[in-house]
């Protein structure tokens, strides 16, 4: 039971660290890369290193950051803001 608490504590601290990084630079992916990331995520979940191994020239951290920025609630308002600005 003690191990479970430690694991949860580590997970929650890492998560808050990611969410607070709102100043990340947007990662551009090709349509093929996005499609492959989505399909692989459905198959293997958040095993970013495994997904990155299927996309030449991409790192696991890059794939994870892309996924968080694309699908995370924190970045939803920022995406809408960028759409309005670009329109």
UniProtKB/TrEMBL annotation:
Record protein name field: Myb family transcription factor
Source organism of this protein record: Melia azedarach
């Amino acid at each position: 039971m003690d191990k479970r608490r430690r694991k949860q504590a580590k997970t929650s601290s890492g998560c808050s660290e990611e969410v607070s990084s709102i100043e990340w630079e947007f990662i551009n992916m090709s349509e093929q890369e996005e499609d492959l990331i989505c399909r692989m995520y459905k198959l293997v979940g958040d095993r970013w290193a495994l997904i990155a191994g299927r996309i030449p020239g991409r790192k696991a951290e890059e794939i994870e950051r892309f996924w968080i920025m694309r699908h995370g609630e924190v970045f939803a308002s920022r995406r809408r803001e960028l759409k309005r600005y670009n329109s």
